[in-house]
Design goal:
Layout: H1 2-15, H2 22-33, H3 38-43, H4 53-90, H5 109-123, E1 127-128, E2 134-136, H6 137-140, H7 152-155, E3 160-162, E4 165-167, H8 172-181, E5 186-195, E6 207-217, H9 222-237, E7 243-250, E8 253-262, E9 279-288, H10 290-295, E10 304-311, H11 312-320, H12 327-330, H13 333-336
Parallel strand pairs: 1-5
Antiparallel strand pairs: 2-4, 3-4, 5-6, 6-10, 7-8, 8-9, 9-10
This protein binds phenylalanine.
Length: 339
């Protein structure tokens, strides 16, 4: 029995070295000290010993139990400690690592110019109105005095979605919607994207931006048109800028004009930007055609108005000296970061 007890002790001392998890530790404890454990099994055999042997073996068994107990206590503490160190290592923060930089967004140059335009027109009492990009034939052409067989429809190559549904070719459609919904006096601008089936090159894009404006009231004349647009050009390009009104044609305005400003690059002498002419065209405008007013339920005998359409992309490229309109739509971060 003595040898057996010693063997158990030795085995325990060997086995404990391999243990390194709390679960294995518990298994170990049950194996040696549990009710069905090896030591208990030997103690059960005590009855067969002589009365002289019993106390000696009892003492020895107790010693073995205490020794194993001590092993367990010591090893458990070690395991706990090791786990704590491991956890702490896992949770350490390396505060010398550089942080993850958050990139700060910026306004697209088109939005910056648009915000300026909105400020200018709002200070003259204009509202900002939004309209749908998908339009009906009626709002984009018909009510703007461009009937189905009108040659102006060839001027604007249109993206049709269905027979009567298209991507608007001009924000003028929103002006019609406004005239249908509101009574004069009306003073509004409608900025937005417009679409034409143009080939892409440095100055053309099938998607571009317009800011159209409309004023309808009693006694509105060409003088009001001139005054508002001159004021606008001076605020955008500076007070020294010259503004030129040229006769033009649009089906929805009569008379119609196109407006040029003196080239801000060369001051009007002629350069690469203005193609030597000294002028840059920035918008189309005119007095709203009486037919258009009448079509929207506004009496052309009582009211008159003017409208204008400004190309926002051209304004942006000239202000920032951007040589290619495509840069405005590609959204290359290296380009956008410069503004
Ligand atoms: N809608 C015209 C265009 O796209 C511009 C314009 C608007 C002209 C309003 C006159 C009046 O070219």
């Amino acid at each position: 029995m003595k040898t057996k007890l010693e063997a158990i002790k030795n085995a325990a001392m060997e086995e404990i070295k391999t243990i390194n998890t709390p679960a294995a530790m518990e298994e170990f404890r049950v194996k040696y000290l549990g009710k069905k454990g090896e030591l208990t099994a030997i103690l059960k055999m005590m009855g067969s010993l002589t009365p002289e042997e019993r106390p000696i073996m009892g003492q020895l068994a107790n010693e073995v139990r205490s020794a194993i107990d001590a092993l367990i206590t010591e090893k458990s503490a070690d395991i706990k400690n090791a786990e704590k160190i491991k956890k702490m290592k896992e949770e350490t923060l390396d505060i010398t690592l550089p942080g993850v930089k958050k990139e700060i967004g910026k306004l697209h140059p088109i939005n910056t110019v648009l915000d300026d335009m909105i400020d200018i027109f709002q200070s003259m009492g204009f509202d900002v109105v939004d309209g749908p990009e998908v339009e009906t034939d009626r709002y984009n052409f018909e009510l703007l005095n461009v009937p189905a067989d009108h040659p102006a429809r060839d001027m604007q190559d249109t993206f049709y979605l269905a027979e009567n549904l298209l991507l608007r070719t001009q924000t003028s459609a929103t002006q019609i919607r406004t005239m249908e919904q509101r009574k004069p006096p009306i003073r509004m601008i409608c900025p937005g994207r417009v679409f034409r089936a143009d080939e892409v090159d440095a100055t053309h894009s099938p998607v571009f931006h317009q800011v159209e404006g409309l004023v309808v009231d009693e006694g509105i004349t060409m003088c009001d048109l001139k005054g508002v647009l001159e004021q606008f050009a001076h605020e955008i390009y500076g007070p020294e800028t010259k503004v030129k009104f040229r006769p033009s044609f649009f089906p929805f305005t009569e008379p119609s004009v196109e407006v040029d400003v003196s080239c801000s690059e060369c001051g009007g002498k002629g350069c690469r930007v203005c193609k030597g002419s000294g002028w840059i065209e920035i918008l189309g405008a005119g007095m709203v055609h009486p037919k258009v007013l009448a079509g929207c339920g506004i009496d052309p005998e009582k009211y008159s108005g003017f409208a204008f359409g400004i190309g926002l992309d051209r304004l942006t490229t000239t202000r920032y000296k951007i040589s290619d309109i495509r840069l405005l739509f590609e959204n290359d971060k290296r380009f956008l970061k410069q503004f």
